[in-house]
Amino acid sequence: IQLVESGGGMVQPGGSLRLSCAASGFAFSNFDMNWVRQAPERGPEWVSLINTNGINKFYEDSVKGRFTVYRDNTKNTLYLQMNNLKPEDTARYYCARDWGGPDYWGLGTQVTVSS
C-alpha cells in the first residue's frame, strides 16, 4: 500500500494550492479517504474525509468554505483544493486511507503560508 502526496509549497496568505495523493496497492474506490495535517509541535489534526463515491464530504470547522476534497477513482487519486489560505494552515498534510479511522498514511507534503 502506497500513498504519495504532492502539490505542497509556500504561498502568501489568501493564496491557493491543490494537493494530490496518488494511491496504489489497494482498491482505492472501496475506501473512504482522509486528509490530516500536522503543524510543528502539535499533534495530528483531521482536516477532511470523503466517502468512496465522492458524494459525502466532511470538513474540520476551520477549513469549511475554503477547502474542497474530491477524488478521481479512475486515477486512484485524492485531491484537496485549498483556497484563501491562512498562516494557521501551515502544516504537513497527509492523505490517509480510512478503515475505522486513518490506517495507512503517506509521507506528507509541506504547506507553508507566509507573507
Class computed from helices, strands and strand pairing:
mainly beta
Rounded average pLDDT: 97
β-sheet strand percentage: over 45%
User: What distance separates the N and C termini?
Assistant: 37 Å
Helix content: under 10%
Shape, per Cα inertia axes: globular
Low-confidence stretches: none
Largest sheet: 7 strands, mixed
Helix-strand topology string: EEEEEEEEEEE
Count of separate DSSP helical elements:
0
- Return Rg in Å: 13 Å
Number of strands: 11
Overview of this protein structure:
The chain is an all-beta fold and 115 residues long. The protein is 0% helix and 52% strand. The protein contains no helices and eleven strands. The chain has strands at 2-6, 9-11, 17-24, 33-38, 45-50, 57-59, 67-72, 77-82, 91-98, 102-105, 109-113. β9 (91-98) and β10 form a beta hairpin. The radius of gyration is 13 Å and the shape is globular. The N and C termini lie far apart (37 Å). The model has no long low-confidence stretch (mean pLDDT 97).
Write the topology of this structure:
Elements: E1 2-6, E2 9-11, E3 17-24, E4 33-38, E5 45-50, E6 57-59, E7 67-72, E8 77-82, E9 91-98, E10 102-105, E11 109-113
Parallel strand pairs: 2-11
Antiparallel strand pairs: 1-3, 3-8, 4-5, 4-9, 5-6, 7-8, 9-10, 9-11
